[in-house]
Records
---
Amino acid sequence: LIQFRLFSMEAEARGLDREPDVRRQLENARERVLAASIYEEIDQHATDPEAIERLYRENAARLGQGTEIHLRHIQFNSREAADAAKRRLDAGERFEALAFELSTERDTAPDGGDLGWSLMSDVSPAIRAAVQDANVGQLMGPIQIENTWHVVRVEDRRERGVPSLETLRPRIVDWLRFQE
């Protein structure tokens, strides 16, 4: 540090700080230092534990609310085909096997018609209306959606909880940085 200070004093004494190339480098260094200081200030505000907790508390009521439902379905091109499959299911045939064999929706058929977990609000209105009050394991349908018919089974349902503060901390910090 002493050597750097001595050399910079000597450069100033020789007038090197007035050279155009050196002046441009000094200005660039000044801008980098100033930019780094503002980034540091933004980061201090964005990582303030009180600000993070306040933002989490203010928004926790809106996070993760709602029911999730796990469904399986079999899609048909006609009501008659859907009715025939429903009778086979009522007689005890396995849903997954019939979905594989009969479903016209080939993306889910190999998985036994598994649609996975979805928020109830994301499920099509016709299916949502049919499964809203259905019990786990219950068969619903045939349900018409546009030009197709569906038989649906409710696999499971759960309430979606609020993610923890620690889970959301990185996203909150990113948001606070953006706001700054």
---
Amino acid sequence: VPPTERRVAAMLRALGRPASDVVASLDPRNGRATLEKIAANAVMAGCRPEHFPVVVASVDAIAQEPFNLHGVQATTGPAAPVLIVNGPVRKTAGMNSGRGCLAPGNRANATIGRALRLIMLNIGGGVPEAVDKSTHGFPGKYTFCFAEDEENSPWAPLHVDRGFSPTDSAVTAYAANGTQNVATTILTNPFDMLLWVADAMSWMGSNNVVVASGEWLIIFTPGHARLFAERGMSKADVQRYIFDRAGFPTAQMPHMMREHRQPRIQVGDQTKPCQKPEHILIAVAGALEPYHIVVVHPWGDSCAVTRREPEPV
């Protein structure tokens, strides 16, 4: 969409702050992400003004040091930001947190993620071939953005787990390498479902194993979350159950892999997919039935960052 002055001005009015305000400096170019530049890219992506605060919070999140934007922009891996949106802005922006929330069909989900990618390209300078050295990439580099289904979850939402108020609108940015579907359609025991998730996380080729750091993101449906809660399980219980059962025998690893970073993720004779249970992030979204779980594979050299939506002036 052409970023005309009229369209950019309409986007900026959503916050009422000066166009010259700098939100962040974006690697690797150290580009100054002013509100005007962010607004222009949001317009090009097809965002509406009500989406703009989410885009601004997303830019703020990826610019924080723990996210390691420089690495995400330049790695040979397929890394791309995942945006998980919480709070009232999910409704005002018209986001999808239910069936098909990771698929096409919702303008907000599609364009907010697309806006962030254009900002990473045009302001951050993450140009394919020249800077972005991703060997294959993955479709999440176009857009990967969804809202959490807070209303149908028995647990506190992700942003509350990370220190924010339930009434705050917030965005969590997480660096992903791809997704894996875990089919639980034939299972009735929730503990078996978690065992299958643990199995999906137990592989030597994970970036987390290579760098011995990083987090995982698991997206349960509200149906799964209710099954676990009915068994008296909190999110922390689910994280611990998965962590205790995930991993593979360290002896199976090539020797050179065992020499350096690997002891940080070793428990006994097992190599774990992450350093501790808290590094398994949990979001609740998707259709209501407990049929499929999404395991989001991590890039590894990054930690998720949550930032609050900026208040309009």
